[in-house]
Amino acid sequence: MAGPDGNLWFTEGIGNGNRIGKITTSGTITEYPVPTANSAPDDITVGPDGNIWFTEALGNKIGKITTSGTITEYPVPTAGGLAAGSGICAGPDGNMWFTEGTANKVGKISTDGSSITEYTVPTANSVPDKIEPGPDGNLWFTEYAANKVAKVTTSGAFTEYTVPTTNSGPNDLRAGPDGNIWFTEYNANKVGKVTTSGAFAEYATPTTPSGPSGIAPGPDGNMWFTETSGSKIGTIGTGIPDPPTAVSGIAGNGQVSVSWVAPVNNGGAPITSYTVTSSGGQQCTWTSGPLTCTVSGLTNGTSYTFTVVATNTNGNSLPSAPSGPVIPGLIFPSSGNFVIGDQHAAVGNSITFWGAQWAKQNTLSGSPAPSSFKGFAAAPSGMPNCASGWSSGPGNSAGPPATVPGVMAVLVSSAASKTGSGVSGTVTELAIVQTNPGYGPDPGHTGTGTIVALVPCPS
């Protein structure tokens, strides 16, 4: 089990030392003895308090251990309740929830240990085993002896569902990325799933007998499980699509147009929609047409990344890898770039980026503004390499564009000089400018605007 400290944590039962252990990703192991002798530490998980929680099957206690190794134990009220098996998980209510296989109960304990509440499972002698939170806000658990998968609300109300295969031996379970509860059937050599409303589907393993035991969702969107009799690791598709790939974005005014590539594996069902989410939480939804979607409501000058989720009738894919950073408002002219002096580069300032009087209306901290320069740099075009600066010819000889965007990125320069007929200068940062009407490619038609954001030079 992955801990909050970046290590992997595990239990060691009676025959293995009666300890809680951790191992670094480079293989260094540290062990901590459980205070109660022969307690048989069993299941283990992370709590919402940042501690590691575990059950003690023979010690009949719930334990927690800090990442530095301090252990605290809490006795379970019902004597011997954990002996036949016990699972533990963090609940959506902030408590730790556990099963009592012998006592036929499900319990919860507050993270400070001051409160333990037990609830009796409706079916007698059901042997509740593993327990996990479901996507519906309930706690789900298996009843090994009763052949059921059940759920309990955080207030203690139970609903039980009988597995279709008789004496299937429901063992471990986990919520899948498709919104269903997936579980192993140890006796039946099957993996099953149940919807949150109780509809089952079962899938036989190719190897018989296989004894499916543990199960968990993988980063590929599939469910992975162990086969104790078959000595194999198995995987089963959940029917959801793979994540989309190659996500990218094009900046606009307060928005970004995001595009992506459809996954090769659609999970066996057509993809009906895609949802694009920005790192700021803004979203857009695609339902038809080219694979592109525009996310609006973004702040010009703020960097965003974007992920895409594919949806089919079986559920949602895992999110795609994020796009590279995209900055709304970072829109460049159709060719070249406009320049302003660094002494005017402040949000809210009115600036002149083009015109016959550019040199008088722009102050540079490192040099005078060349009088022949009117504000347009022929190079670079688009996103600059700030270390290379900018260059241009005098006046309008460099060929400024016929129009400018309503929101436009301009180069901020601290120094400029004239060599022969050419003019060149530095680039210290970018300014996003809300442009005013009146611009024309002749220096007599001044280009002006207001700075709405400053953006560091791209690395």
The total count of helices amounts to 1
Tally of structural domains = 3
Report the uncertain regions. Answer: none
Q: Under CATH, the topology of the largest domain is which?
A: Methylamine Dehydrogenase, Chain H
Shape: elongated
Strand content: 35-45%
Q: Please give the share of residues in helix.
A: under 10%
- Give the CA-CA distance, first to last residue: 38 Å
Q: Main sheet, how many strands, which sense, barrel? A: 6 strands, mixed
Global structural class: mainly beta
Could you report the average pLDDT, rounded to the nearest whole number?
95
Round the Cα radius of gyration to an integer and report it.
32 Å
Spell out the CATH superfamily of the largest domain.
YVTN repeat-like/Quinoprotein amine dehydrogenase
Brief sketch in words of this structure:
The chain is mainly beta. It folds into three domains: 8-236, Methylamine Dehydrogenase, Chain H (7 Propeller); 245-316, Immunoglobulins (Immunoglobulin-like), CATH 2.60.40.10; 337-456, no CATH class. Helices cover 1% and strands 42% of the residues.
How is this structure best described in words?
The protein has 459 residues and is mainly β. It has 3 domains: 8-236, YVTN repeat-like/Quinoprotein amine dehydrogenase (Methylamine Dehydrogenase, Chain H); 245-316, Immunoglobulins (Immunoglobulin-like, Sandwich), CATH 2.60.40.10; 337-456, no CATH class. It is 1% helix and 42% strand. The protein has 1 helix and 38 strands. A 6-stranded mixed sheet has the order 31-38-37-34-30-32, with no helix packed on it. The longest helix has 4 residues, at 358-361. The chain is elongated. The model has no long low-confidence stretch (mean pLDDT 95).
